[in-house]
Amino acid sequence: MNEGTCVDDKAPVAELADRLVDGEVSTEHDVLAAQRTDEAYLTPSGWPLCSVYARSTADVVETMRWAARHRVPVVPRGAGTGLAGGALAGDGALVLSLERMMAVRELSVDDRLAVVEPGVITADLARAADERGLMYPVDPGSASRSTLGGNLATNAGGFRCFKYGVTRESVLGLEVVLADGRVVTTGHRTTKGVSGYDLTGLFVGSEGTLGVITGATLRLRSKAAGPRATVAACFPDAAAAARAPLELARAGLLPSFLELIDEVTLRAVRAWQPLDLPGDGEALLLAEFDGADAGGAAARMGQLCGTLDAAVTVTTDEEESERLLSVRRHALGALERMGRTMVEDFVVPRSRLGDMLAEIRRIAARHDVLIGTVAHAGDANLHPTLLFDRGEPEIPARVWAAADDMFRTALRLGGTLTGEHGIGTLKRRWLRDELGDDATDVHRTIKNALDPLGIMNPGKVL
């Protein structure tokens, strides 16, 4: 909604309930309390007007027609696992929950695609594809909880994006309900298709500000042949570990999983549970290779890391691989045991990964903030986690100052504000710094064309 636009606080919610085909409307306090925020833990002003649980595209159509008629802001919502404040629902907003749209409408082995609704849990699609001998490669850290709709809204990435790409690379087409209730389909089911503008790419990553995604045609891949191979390399510090991804790329090695865990985070994991890692290094680089030559590629990485003063373990044992890779999956949980967290997300050029890690250490000292960092090291997508006392009623000023310092440093190094979490509410203040005035104006022109009333997830991104 445009800043300052009045909301109809007497909008007839009962009329909306009557118009829904299969969905439900709730105005229960506990429901609204749970749905007014996400895992960024920011607090919106005021309270939502109501929550709609849609069960079909028809429900979403009726909801958007009603919202447009009464100029009620709409906040689309999946599982609420977002980390950028993209699902904050403030005063007078309608929360449009898509978590009950859970159908996998089609899974085609011959065409290697799945047609899904937005409430499908990411890991559930991965399991369904696996049972048919296929793979859905997008693997965010929240895969067991996050919905595909949320992944599409933020263009989520995850552990395997270095080799297989982020969500956009797996999207063939979409079904989208626009702000006025019209339904458009974008893209195609074919392996190639370039008709018209790339509307699919436009809606992926738009964070619910241009329309509501109610269906997606997703590309599946053949499962890699042969056993996986895992490498764990302990380095003296994160700066030393950051040299390895460049050397891997120069050697032509392409792991499906390449994760860096810094000193602060590794100490947090060690304090939580015993670890059996090679050597006694302070930072850890974890890699997984798939495909016919996984074992050979892992062995070559092990040798390379050894030349960089790392202690290395290479294994093709599935149980040991899972144990090693679980260190990365438990990283955030270990940090959360130490206090309240603000998890950030930005990307720098791969050649500047070590520089950015060193800058984070300086920023932490400058602002007296404990920061633990993990990174999708292959594409230099860093996730610094800023810690502060649980008793703080809101994010302290020194934490915001440290975050500001990090984002501006990432941009100065040629990076971008987000690789997978989105802009949401959290990063709005820095977006113009990255885009520039003219590109920001183009964004606003697109937003105004598709959402002239300004009701789609207002206050997010722009």
Automatic annotation (TrEMBL):
Protein name (Swiss-Prot/TrEMBL): FAD-binding oxidoreductase
Stored Pfam families: FAD-oxidase_C, FAD_binding_4
Keyword hit for rRNA processing: no
Sections of the chain in a coiled coil: none
Domain FAD-binding PCMH-type: 44-223
Cofactor: FAD
PANTHER family to which the protein is assigned, alphabetical: GLYCOLATE OXIDASE SUBUNIT GLCD
Keywords on record: FAD, Flavoprotein, Oxidoreductase
Segments traversing the membrane: none
Signal sequence coordinates: none
